[in-house]
Design a protein that fits this description.
25% strand; Transferase(Phosphotransferase), domain 1; 2 domains; Phosphorylase Kinase, domain 1; two-stranded antiparallel ribbon; six-stranded antiparallel beta sheet
């Protein structure tokens, strides 16, 4: 078993090493499907444990010899985010378990963020000025990601937390083991990110021009690429669900 703990959380080592036994008390379970996400309390702090579903055999081989596990990537990307001034759940540790010499199970542990999700925000009644501030600050956050050469591939509202301080909305992104790094995304990739947000159409049509203006992009072209990406994503989703239903997954 490989256990990597951030030095700041060394005092919690005994709790962390015991995680694979899964004998801890769960405060809350957020997801128990493909991956398991739980909130726990160790000592005086709340943490989130994400247990990744055991990968297919070919991926077990890949994670053993050729590629970092999702747990390790989540930890390292969280460190990268914080180094670049992008808010995310502070990384605590990651655990990798092998069986018969091959990768089997991974865990990523982070601090708990006590903030609501963006998905809860856009559906609520709000004064227009307040919504305008929310849209503006969300665009600023997205721009911060892109100009830092970070393109999240899972940029959906269930992965974005928000809080408001001193009249400004601040955002934190989680579930970040899938990223494209190294260059500022162009218009197509940037709009593809916005297409994943799934926010109401009225807000969506007001957000895109704000981002386009900041990047110097053509607004109509931005709207076209975003709508195209949303349609493409829906078709892929429908096809995937159809295949699963036929295979009884």
């Amino acid at each position: 078993m490989k256990v990597h703990i951030h030095p700041h959380y060394a005092a919690y080592e005994s709790y962390i090493r015991a995680i694979p036994s899964e004998e801890y008390e769960r405060e809350e379970v957020y997801c128990n499907r493909r991956n398991t996400v739980e909130r726990v309390r160790f000592g005086d702090k709340d943490f989130v444990i994400k247990k990744y579903k055991r990968p297919a055999l070919i991926n077990c081989l890949i994670y053993t010899w050729f590629r970092k596990s999702k747990a390790q990537r989540a930890f390292e990307y969280a460190e990268l985010f914080l180094q670049r001034g992008i808010e995310t759940a502070p990384p605590v540790a990651y655990i990798e378990i092998k069986k018969n010499g091959f990768f089997h199970t991974g865990y990523f542990i982070s601090e708990y963020l006590p903030y609501p999700l963006v998905t809860d925000m856009f559906g609520t009644e709000m004064e227009e000025e307040e919504k305008k501030r929310l849209r503006h600050d969300l665009v600023d956050f997205t721009l911060q990601l892109h100009l830092n050469k970070v393109l999240p591939l899972d940029y959906n509202p269930k992965n974005i937390f928000y809080r408001k301080t001193n009249g400004k909305y601040h955002f934190a992104l989680i579930d970040i083991n899938r990223l494209k790094l190294g260059k500022v995304p162009g218009i197509r990739m940037s709009m593809n990110a916005f297409s994943q947000l799934g926010i109401p159409a009225d807000d969506f049509m007001k957000i895109i021009p704000l981002y386009a203006e900041q990047r110097g992009f053509d607004i109509e072209e931005c709207i076209f690429f975003t709508l195209f990406s949303r349609l493409k994503w829906r078709k892929q989703r429908q096809f995937k669900n159809f295949v699963k239903s036929k295979l009884h997954f």
